[in-house]
UniProtKB/TrEMBL annotation:
Gene3D superfamilies: 3.30.70.270
GO MF term (any one): diguanylate cyclase activity
Name under which the protein is recorded: Diguanylate cyclase (GGDEF) domain-containing protein
Family annotation (NCBIfam families): GGDEF
Stretches the record annotates as Disordered: 232-258
Annotated PROSITE patterns: GGDEF
Pfam families on file: GGDEF
Organism: Garciella nitratireducens DSM 15102
Length: 258
């Protein structure tokens, strides 16, 4: 390949607060500020929805999010002369209305949580236990409806400053900021009840498992996800054991009735 024709791809991530001050940047803050001014970013901060625009050889994407009840803007700048396919406005999952995995990858870059005034973060993982059963018996449209119901329940049950993300197919990630464990447990319970309520109106039964873990700034947040994942599978194993015990009892009762 001719080196002169090879394009160097660099994506810059900058986070600014509501006062237009940089709180995190993947490049030097002075260079970042000059770039924000040159690309007119500070005059284009969105009020509601993510925006994307082209400026000479730059693609700029700006979105907003809340951490600890404070609004922040994430600015992603692609130093190339073609549309940024990896950091488009595809931050929102169309099915659930929650943030998606791409958004998570952006805000999780370089442990940016250490730059905010956050006393603690509780992380919740939610997984739909019976999605395969729903797909097999009711069809994939019903399966999508189940995922949508869980997304709606999460949106309705968490605070504005918390972040709900569709982490995978039927996995959801929630970040609870500056909230005690007891309050986090209450929020998880609200989600369970809301799922049950909405599912009932749709004549469906949706079963979920949940795992939570506390994030410590001295550890990697990916390790916290693994801890929450272990808790989630503990709940799954308990349910499976309970189900097997119930089936064994039913079999014994049938035999005794013969």
């Amino acid at each position: 390949m001719n080196k002169k024709n090879a394009k160097i791809r660099q994506i810059i991530r900058i986070i600014i607060n509501n006062k237009k001050k940089i709180v995190y940047s993947s490049i030097h803050h002075k260079k970042a500020y000059n770039l924000l001014v040159r690309l007119d970013v500070l005059n284009k901060l969105p009020k509601d929805f993510c925006i994307q625009y082209h400026h000479k050889n730059y693609w700029v994407i700006i979105d907003q999010f809340y951490i600890a009840d404070q609004k922040y803007y994430i600015v992603i700048i692609d130093l190339s002369d073609f549309k940024c396919s990896r950091c488009n406005k595809v931050f929102i999952d169309l099915l659930t209305g929650l943030y998606n995995r791409n958004y998570w990858e952006q805000i999780n870059n370089s442990s940016i949580y250490n730059y905010f005034d956050i006393q603690n973060i509780f992380l919740g993982l939610i997984d739909i236990d019976n999605l395969k059963e729903i797909n097999d018996t009711l069809g994939h449209i019903a399966g999508d409806r189940a995922i949508k119901i869980v997304g709606r329940a999460i949106q309705k049950s968490i605070r504005k400053e918390d972040i709900g993300i569709r982490y995978g197919g039927d996995e959801f990630l929630i970040l609870f900021f500056n909230q005690k464990q007891k309050e986090t447990e209450k929020a998880i319970q609200r989600i369970r009840e809301e799922i049950k309520r909405i599912a009932k109106t749709q004549q469906m039964e949706i079963q979920i498992s949940v795992g939570t873990a506390s994030y410590d700034s001295f550890q990697n947040i990916e390790d916290t996800i693994k801890m929450a994942d272990k808790e989630l599978y503990k709940e799954k194993r308990k349910k499976k054991k309970r189900k097997n015990n119930n089936e064994s009892k039913k079999m014994k009762n049938k035999k005794s009735m013969r």
